Amino acid sequence: MHAAVELVAERGVDATSMDAIADSSGVGKATIYKRWPDKEALMLEIMAEMNGIHTRPKFDSGDTRADMTAVLAYRSRENAEARERIMPHFMAYSARHPEFGRAWRKYGHGPAAQGVAAFAAAGDCERRSRAGNRF
Description:
CATH superfamily: Tetracycline Repressor, domain 2
Radius of gyration: 19 Å
Order of helices and strands: HHHHHHHH
Number of domains: 1
């Protein structure tokens, strides 16, 4: 994946071919396709990795408001430099390829959206409980 990140940072997404990624990483193209069915799947995985989607911490301090703020403000510190280099390319690619942009919003923003929904539900239950309402 490192080779793909470097190529995207240099060339952009459109100009980065699977052949170039295979050559740069020293593996055959078939090896890449065993893991990712197509270029867009690889690009989505790169974006997820750069944004810490798979290593996102749990936010459960007991303070719903603070937890929701932390979910919305979370920014992985890992890969920050690489992320800054590639994100403009991904944003441009998403603008030119709306299906990719929708896939990224669903995949990339899913954990934050799920976290906010869970905290909103917890906050509603907490509010109803304080009001003496049954739910």
